[in-house]
Amino acid sequence: MEKEFLIGGLRAAAYYAIGFAIAWAAYLIFGWEYVHAPGIHHLIGFLVLVVGTILLIRRLIRLFNDSSDNSNKGSLLTHLLVVGGFVIYFGVILKEVNEPVETDLETLAESETLTLDKNTKTIIIENGLGDTVFLQVADSVLIDKKNYNKE
């Protein structure tokens, strides 16, 4: 009984391991030439998750039809952990990206220009020469030449 459960779980884990290994190999072979669009490795990883979700639904249906299949239960648990983990992970990321961006205007010099973009959650501060002295996208500070982001 437990052996069948373990075999089912390992079979599903092998599916994800092979799928993500192929995605990793695609990254090593093709790289990520254009960073503003998903690379082939992203598409392969996404395809692995989509098929994993289909397998999860299939295993759920099978569980209701035959609840005594322990191999199915092990596979179902693995699919739930992987697909559920990715859904929660990306849900947290999207929640953080959509939070409002805050900045302290008291530290802004008169010759500097502040640009806020609520759509992209971007803060840009430029000096009088057009040089970017501070750049923040969502919660990631990319440029901070004057130490505006004191923590």
Automatic annotation (TrEMBL):
Question: What's the source species for this entry?
Answer: Pontibacter diazotrophicus
Transmembrane region positions?
12-32, 38-56, 76-94
Q: Which domain of life is it from?
A: Bacteria
Q: What is this protein called?
A: Uncharacterized protein
Q: Which UniProt keywords apply?
A: Membrane, Transmembrane, Transmembrane helix
